[in-house]
Amino acid sequence: MTSYHLNTGISPEPLSASGRSSEKMSLPTLQSKMKCDPEGYESELLLVYNQFKSSLELFEQQAALNFASISGIGSDPTVAKDLGDRVMFLAHVTPFYPTQLGHFPKELADFLGSSARSLPSGLRRHVAQALILLINRKAVDIGETLALFMEIQTLGDRVLRKLAFSHVIQSIRRMNQKHKNEAKNRALQNILFAMLQQEDEAKSKRSLITLCELHRRKVWFDDRTANAICTACFHSSSRIMIASLSFLLDYEKIEDDDDSDASSSEDESTPQAHQVALSKEAVYKAHNKGTSSSKKKKQAKLQRAIRSMKKQQRLSSERTNSNYYSPLNHLKDPQGFVEKLFSRLQTCNERFEVKMMMLKVIARTIGLHSLILLSFYPFIQKYAQPHQREVTSILAAAVQACHDMVPPDAVEPLFKQVVNQFVHDRSRPESIAVGLNVTREICLRMPLLMTEELLQDLALYKKSHEKAVSIAARSLIGLFREVCPSLLIKKDRGCPTDPKARPKAYGEANVLSNVPGVELLDHVEEDGDNTDEHTSSGSDDEHDIDEMVASGDDEGIQESSYDTGSEDDDEIKDKVSEDEDGGNNLDDDDDDNNVLYDEEEEEEEESEEEVEGEEGEENENELKEEAVESNENGLKESKAKKRKMSDFDTQVTAADTSLRALKKLAGTKLGTTSSDSLDGILSNEDFKRIKELKAKEEAKTALTQHGLLRKGTDAKSTAVKIPNSDQLSLKRLNPSKLEVHVRKKLSKEERLELVKAGREDRGKYQARTAVKQKKTGGSSNRQKEHKKAMPLAAKRSKVARSRVEKKKQQQRSGKQFRGKKAWK
């Protein structure tokens, strides 16, 4: 085998001593040869390794003596480049020589840790890359070098900082990709947590950034990491505190009610497609009824309804999912966290933006965990002024800090301050709208604050000419129609679903005694029993909502099948028609009278429920006797007059009440037997059915809000659902929601931009005569009238008229005063 000579300053004598001829070879070529034949190149490896050690000692001595001469080793670029090449060479061949290079990784790490600040930037980067290569080849553990790479990030080298940060993130992510090693993760977390608590601002900041990035990527998505990030709010350095506060505030993105197309694309990218229940009638009308423009509007409404339902279902699935985390949601001691941060807010001398961030975090934590911090509301009360800077953000924080566990007496001064300062006749429309919106949001969480007199005064703003003010007042009225209609005057109550509704008293809680949603199954059974009472066929179509998976595209909606009816409904209708034909042999006119009397009978249903089976039998016997008597009288007196309408009406009502009583009695018996057979145990099919019915109820609500459901539907099923306290605490309030529909005053530059934008499609300005002169396509009707030949009589009358006018003009011209003549 031939011997080789390196072109990096290696003498050929040791290579030719073995009797082999030497030739020059570069380090990459030698590296490839060593990978193919590791045993044949051990001498060359030892030679390069010894040269690396000698260069390493020189650099360490230079760092120890602070050697800064111009002719020093560190300032020589060729020496630094040779050492960097040898480091990369040895890092590549280390897996092939585990015994010879067993101490090389530790030597390299010690060298980088001791001489990192004195090394040239290029050599320092080469050493870091070689160490990263060894860690990726699993020659070194990440736990041994994590502190080193975190310290490297504090140097002034931006490229090296980016390299070390990406290496730490990717190594920990790769380690937890298949399964999480809790012991190793805990060891790494302890290193970063210790650095976060240090007084050194640079190290603490880099450790906080690393923890935030790992938590955002859901690599370390546990309570320990969340609590470590939250405790960084109490760091002595204001920069660390600001970084932690900004991460906590920006972690949860604010989701508006009107989602954009980006939100729909996010919905489609989720692995589990959410099922959306829609009305067949609404989908059919959006594609097959009306003009093309009206179809586009209906389809747009349908898409908005689909997006809103998908968002609600996604949020509900996130709430039920155990992997859903938030840094503030998993504080070990939220009350202590809030009190400590609030005390720092009261005593700190930071700028206004930092105080606002602390205020928002405190309010968010209070709302999430339903905490009680009574001194927070008087503190925020002094900022509730219309002229205050960022007043909408302050009011949004005040709203989030309100929940049903806070005593109303503690929030009442703040509530009165908002109403008195924002909502009065001399205030600007923008302030009135913001004040009404804040009042609505606070009353949504704490309705006990509102009084009857105050609500009626605020409801008068619904007649305001400003759109934002009237909309805010109407939204407040709509809220109390559902919460407590008795506080409104009669004309503002509308048609509430529950006229006797009242807000819960302070401390009152609803304890569930059954599975949520079981009542939906009972309603479905009642609707199935009462299908024979519906006379119109259109009502079945209105309430018939089938479940289908609606995609965000129009094609998916167009390809969905439209079912005209169900076989069960047809069978029930047939049975009902057979029963009615067998029980009542009446004429068509009598059927019409039955329909007229159905409304009166529906009003008296409460009294009819007490009718028993025995009374129904007596009514039937009386009816049969009256029918027999009437038949006998009809046979005896053939020429008698017709029966009076009143007698016939009494017979019809008696027959109908008897049938209804029997049906209700049979229904109650069936209901008792079914409930006894169930024994309160629900099967998997029942739970699936409850989930489907809940989706249908949400679909009805969404379609009603977007105006896609017919007005004749049941009001109770389409009522707007008021979210409970848990749902309100999960979502952060967007401050822009408080000033919705408010017209902001534009500056002169913005107004000019709007004017120029309106002129883009318009042509160049021209006078009206110039436009007429450029007219093509012949003369107009007025021009033709001028050219039209007049008849002889018209010409004579025109000449005579002009002659008279000339004569009058001459007479007037002589009498006019022309002033004194100069020549007289």
UniProtKB/TrEMBL annotation:
Pfam families: SDA1_C, SDA1_HEAT. GO terms for biological process: protein transport; ribosomal large subunit biogenesis; ribosomal large subunit export from nucleus. The keyword Transport applies. Residues 1-28, 285-325, 527-546, 551-649, 755-824 are annotated as: Disordered. Residues 755-764 have a biased composition (Basic and acidic residues). Required for 60S pre-ribosomal subunits export to the cytoplasm. This is Protein SDA1. It comes from Rhamnella rubrinervis.
